[in-house]
Amino acid sequence: MRARIVAYLAAFAGLMAPVAFAAPATVHDAWLRALPGGLPASGYFTLHNTGGRTLVLRGATSPACGMLMLHRSNTEGGMARMQDLPQVAVAPGASVRFAPGGYHLMCSDPAAALKPGARIGVTLEFAGGGKLDAVFAVRGAAGR
Q: Sign (positive/negative) of CA torsion 128, 129, 132, 136?
């Protein structure tokens, strides 16, 4: 009897666990800029929302980065600055480009695997639990 109760509780707990779903999106032209000396790397790509509702990118993870954060670079009053972002919204049918000088992923504590010529897995995480796995090509400091 006790074993049956434990089995029911385990099954119920499994039903209550959060379930990740594939986000209605595509990723194009994904690459990471590796810098020498363990400096933070930047990730660039184009994110296209293929769904009918606004998609909210809330973060990203990769085994090649100690931490992977959403950032935006901009220039105000002649001063360049970088801003940490909590999220990036993409309207239905629209695309957002993550590119040098704008939105980007910031990879702190890059792993040794992050070297030009490598291909690195990145998981994009969306509001509501959606996830999207992508492969990023690693390029050198000049973007090649």
A: positive
Residue 49: both structure tokens together: 């929302």
What global pTM score does this model have?
0.82
One-letter amino acid identity for 121? G
* Helix, strand, coil distribution of the chain in percent, nearest 5: 10, 55, 35
Kindly report the three-state secondary structure assignment for every residue of 46-83.
Answer: EEEECCCCCEEEEEEECCCEEEEEEEEEEEECCEEEEE
Residue ranges of E strands in the chain: 21-22, 25-33, 41-49, 55-61, 65-76, 79-84, 88-90, 95-98, 103-110, 119-126, 130-139
According to DSSP, the β-strands at 65-76 and 79-84 are antiparallel
Report pLDDT for 11: 42
